[in-house]
Amino acid sequence: MAKFFKSLFGQVLLALLLGIALGFVSPELAVKLKPLGDGFIKLIKMIIPVLVFCVVVHGIAGAGDLKRVGRVGVKALIYFEVVTTIALLLGLVLAFWFQPGVGMNVNPATLDASAMSAYASNADKLTSGGTVEFLMKLIPTTVVAAFANGDVLQVLLFAVLFGCALALLGERGAPVAGFIDTLSQVLFKIMGLIIKLAPLGVLGAIAFTVGKYGLGSLKQLGMLVLLFYGAVIFFVFVVLGLIMRMAGFSIFKLLRYLREELAVVFATTSSDSVLPQIMAKLRGMGIKDSTVGLVIPTGYSFNLDAFSIYITLAAVFIAQATNTPISMSDLLAILAISLVTSKGAHGVPGSAIVVLAATLHAIPAIPAIGLVLVLSIDWFMGIARALGNLIGNCVATVVVAAWEGDIDRTKAHAVLDGREQPRLE
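Given the sequence above, the corresponding structure tokens read:
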């Protein structure tokens, strides 16, 4: 037992239990602990842009063969689109099968529009200009701006260009490549120090949530939340489990290997909080640096599986709750628009509501004001979204690596079976 609580997973689990107990016994004190969770996430986000840059550049420069790097990128994008489409379809099917919003009989005119004002401007920005504008936003105004704003996709674009240029320089670029490799090792050491604070971050995040919303709030979530959690569980263990089996690995063993990171994400509802550690663990199980460096950061914006389930499920739920009939063309529009709007979700404040608003904005048949109905339960939905998205990206990395031959299968099985300890650096 003592050994268990000396592990990071044991400490995080203990912090979860203490946070729940504190939120129940002393809600006022629990709410005041919110800065612990916020501070932990800010510490992690502080190093993410530079760390992503170093890992991607080192991976591409070390790979040497730029054609192979290009193949990895193309295969990753193909995988993202196929799996994301499956997730979107799953949300639609479940919404029509179980009909969670039927019977609510909400009149849109009675809903408080002021509750949506904070999200309206961001939703307009997300939909304005369409796909072309979205692609233009991938290009930073300056290199410094990409790092300063913490925009992972913009940093990734520059890192790919920098890595390719460095590879083309050959021996002349060796000193720069060596410096970046050393810098990445320093950043991973910093990450190792920060991750030791995870129990405090978890304690603050979960205590605040229980203290503010109360345990009784769980009873108010209703059919929509239960259905969404069920959908994410089904998607992870059936859809992703089948994909992992086809790649020659077990989803259960992967989840056990990532249990510490998943516990942190569960408490903080943020997959950003474990991005550096996830990259280190995937490298530690024998996946090449270049594949991890390309797939994980890209997946954080292009492969949001649980998020995709949420968008279509919530959109149909709102239509049902407001007694709004939707045609087949509306459903196809939801699918098509969601494939685009979901790509801009990462890094947008209140991203779930904003992207849902942006999706409904393009479908006049469904009253966008109906988003007020899901505002109160968004945090609870966020737990499953963050966990599902993270697991989806880890599976994507393993599958693309297996597809491309960029994984040491012997080492991966040894690590996942617990017979070998990964080297996390």
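The chain has a mean pLDDT of 78. Try to locate this feature in the token string yourself.
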